[in-house]
Amino acid sequence: MSQLEAEGFDGRLRSAAMAWLDRRCTPDNPVVERRELLGFEFEGRRVPLVDNQLGIRKPQGLTAALSILTTYTSDGQRAPYEDALGPDGFLRYKYQGNPQHYTNKGLQEARALEVPLIWFFGVQQGLYLPFYPVWIVADEPAESQVAVALDESQANLAGHASLSPLERRYSERISKQRLHQPVFRQRVIRAYDTSCAMCRLRHASLLDAAHIIPDREERGLPAVSNGLSLCKIHHAAYDANILGIRPNLTIQVRTDILQEVDGPMLRHGLQEMDGVTLTLPRRRIDRPDLEAIEQRYETFRKAG
Q1: Sign of the Cα pseudo-torsion (177, 178, 184, 189, in order)
Q2: Rounded CA gap, 287 and 295, in Å?
Q3: Which terminus of the chain faces fewer neighbouring Cβ atoms within 10 Å, N or C?
Q4: What is the pairing mode between strands 227-231 and 32-33?
Q5: 90: helix, coil or strand?
Q6: Last residue of a domain, one of 106, 136, 168
Q7: In the chain, what is the greatest distance between 2 CA atoms, to the nearest angstrom?
Q8: Where does the record place the HNH nuclease domain (predicted)?
Q9: Calpha distance 295→128 (Å, rounded)
């Protein structure tokens, strides 16, 4: 294959992979299984979008890496994934072992050629949330890592010699909104078997991942144990301190709300929640952190 043919193959493959993900991943089901990624076919042959063993995928015939992958691990077995966020607000991705490994060279080539990649982020065993297109915008060999931009506006910031405080905050906000928040949502909702922990509503499009300790606070980590899968009405009510969660994991509705007289949504949607016990994830490690529940309950009591 000539260099010109390789360049054409590279571009067609990247475009086809991202177009397939556009069709495959919907708002109600934005995740993709590993077996599907391994079975991807392009121009009559199988071209896996992820490596069978490595985190960086560089198919034969491509100079630059096609995708990077973050394996799912539960919160108790890993550091919170904000640790991958650098002081400039860009996310970092670690090399695959030896810096001279061909996959790491593929990341460096992706940066030099400015080609887009796909980032597959594990939200459950064998299940990934894809982010694309992303770009490698800096190589940091001393730390065995590269910096990743999640959209073009963030990538444009990478060319600045130094970022202003405003630019750093903007870059950090992009990283959190485009990766951290969607990953947190998927992990929490799936831990609760795609249902509201309060009313058991099972429509994914009507569910949110609510923080117990708000993410603006130091302890407000995007860990499943700091999250609750709540329908939109109960998420809003929880954030507004209309209802709270006692340390014994039962729901308490604010006294003035219990005394109101209104239509069926107030009666069935809120008032009848008083005293209901939360439905919890099957895995103990995914269940609410009781210290966080107690801290948040004190906020609710003071508000009432």
Answers
A1: positive
A2: 16
A3: N
A4: unpaired
A5: coil
A6: 168
A7: 77
A8: 196-245
A9: 32
Which residues, given as ranges, of the chain have pLDDT below 70?
1-7, 76-83, 160-161
What is the enclosing helix (H) or strand (E) of 138? Answer: strand 127-140
**How far are the Cα atoms of 98, 137, 175 from residue 145, in angstroms, in the given order?**
11, 11, 17
Q: Are residues 11 and 148 in the same domain?
A: yes
Q: Which domain holds residue 12?
A: 3-168
100, amino acid identity: Q
Alpha carbons 159 and 157: distance in angstroms, whole number: 5
Separate counts of helices (H) and strands (E) for the chain: 10, 13
Separation of alpha carbons 127 and 35, rounded Å: 9
Residue 110 lies in a domain: yes
Asked, for residue 180, whether it belongs to a domain, the answer is no
Q: Is 222 helix (H, G, I), strand (E, B) or coil?
A: coil
pLDDT one-digit tens code per residue, 22-40:
999 998 899 999 999 999 9
Cis amide linkage into residue 288, ω under 30° from 0:
no
The SS3 call for residue 46 is: strand
> For the segment 84-140, what is each residue's pLDDT rounded down to a tens digit?
788 888 999 999 888 889 999 999 999 999 999 999 999 999 999 999 999 999 999
